[in-house]
Design brief:
Number of domains: 1
CATH topology: MetI-like fold
CATH superfamily: MetI-like
Order of helices and strands: HHHHHHHHH
Keywords: Membrane, Transmembrane, Transmembrane helix, Transport
Organism: Rothia kristinae
Helix content: over 70%
Protein name: ABC transporter permease
CATH architecture: Orthogonal Bundle
Radius of gyration: 20 Å
Largest sheet: none
Strand content: under 5%
Main location: membrane
GO biological process, one term: glycine betaine transport
Number of strands: 0
Distance between the termini: 42 Å
Shape: elongated
């Protein structure tokens, strides 16, 4: 195992960087999409229920099946991987964003409007910062979930550590097959831990002391 990692150390680091970069970029895109959707629907009960139902149903779809279906319209490569990872990343963030924004005290918002803030300014400077810890919690859930989904995306030739896992599984019993699988799995776990720590640090730096939990 040690020899396997030592001989391929450069390749493993490059694949790890690809994996982390793919997840982070999809996570950022998913956050923008989820917050925008939450902003449109959190004040309307019917739309809030719809958003919650969509997130619940979306999480029941097997990622491997969805990736396979996307091969038909999107072919192989990075694009289907980005679409699938972003789709799954949106779901927890959207649910948390709706909950967080709906939980902001209306009196606080009205006070902001009363001192001259417009609706957009009140949303960006009052509602969004107050809901940010809840949104960030959704981002942490999405980050952990999509780390594994990004590995599955290697099925459609997506970049990242999934190539080691699928390569090892495809020739299980052959030379270095088990080492390849174990290397990919452990590296994904390490990246998930690193990304979660980064998000915790971001939360500490971007959350007001008055609303920290």
């Amino acid at each position: 195992m040690i020899d396997f990692v030592r001989e391929r150390w450069g390749q493993i680091l490059f694949a790890s960087w690809q994996h982390l970069s793919l997840v982070v970029q999809c996570l950022l895109l998913a956050t923008v999409i989820a917050v925008a959707l939450a902003a449109l629907c959190y004040r309307r009960r019917s739309l809030t229920s719809l958003a919650n139902n969509v997130t619940a149903v979306g999480l029941t779809i097997p990622s491997f099946a969805l990736i396979g279906l996307l091969v038909i319209p999107l072919s192989f490569g990075v694009l289907p991987a980005v679409v699938v990872i972003t789709f799954y990343a949106v779901l927890p963030i959207l649910r948390n964003a709706v909950v967080g924004l709906a939980g902001v005290d209306r009196a606080t918002v009205e006070a902001a409007r009363g001192i001259g803030m417009g609706r957009t300014a009140a949303f960006l400077r009052v509602e969004l910062p107050l809901a940010w810890p809840v949104i960030l919690a959704g981002m942490r859930v999405s980050a952990q979930m999509t780390m594994g989904i990004a590995a599955v995306a290697a099925y459609v030739l997506g970049p990242g550590l999934g190539t080691y896992i699928f390569s090892g599984l495809s020739r299980l019993g052959g030379a270095n097959s088990l080492e390849s699988v174990v290397t990919g799995v452990i590296a994904v776990m390490i990246l998930a831990l690193i990304l979660d720590l980064i998000l915790v640090l971001i939360g500490r730096l971007t959350t007001s002391r008055g609303i920290r939990v």
